[in-house]
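quick one, two chains, predict together pls
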Amino acid sequence: VANHHDALFKEAFSSPDSAAAELRAVLPSDLVQAIELSKLSLVPGSFRSHELAESHTDLLFTVPIAGKARSA
Amino acid sequence: LDDISHIPGETLRARAFDAFATVAVAALNRSHESEEALLQALAPFADLFAALVSAPHGARALAIIFEYLSRVAPRLTPQGLAQALAPYTTQGQDILMNIVDQLRQEGRQEGQAEGRALSVLKLMKLKFGQVPVEIERTVSAAPAERLDTFLERILTAASFEDVVRE
């Protein structure tokens, strides 16, 4: 059975800005400081709306950890 | 952890979500209550509904929100939503009603394509097995007319590629 609550949430929070705002509000402050939430990026394919009826994929983001060199 | 569906309306705006996410959470908050309570909770966010009209991807966001609202409140009409929002926005009821009517129309068209895409995927899965991610992407991004072509091709196609070729 499709979960339309879940579907709405995922659609709304696939925006990195809103996802970052939520993470900023709920994560411990030292963790918030350690990650670059402004560079939050949705992993492509982690969410496709047409699949909602059949699978439950969470939103998946990547974020750079501050002070770590980016891998080339 | 944070139960996002229970952020009170007053603190919701402080979260700095975009308009879509704010309205979505406001709707999720009251989704198990009566239609009246749901509309009451949404009304103070009328300005965000209005903002979405001109926002990039705003029309899609509004369509998704309205689709959700009609699932949790099956008797909710676009007029009902417009009437509930109107006192809270300077844009006036007429403008809002036009917006919502337009959305309902778009939502229907989008729903048709989505339904057809699901059928295509289901039939392909039955015939060829697990659908590769690339094929899935092509199907879900295809407009309704192209999906009709896909549907017809599944009968005679020998592979996934046969179905979705140009």
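The longest helix of chain A spans residues 16-26.
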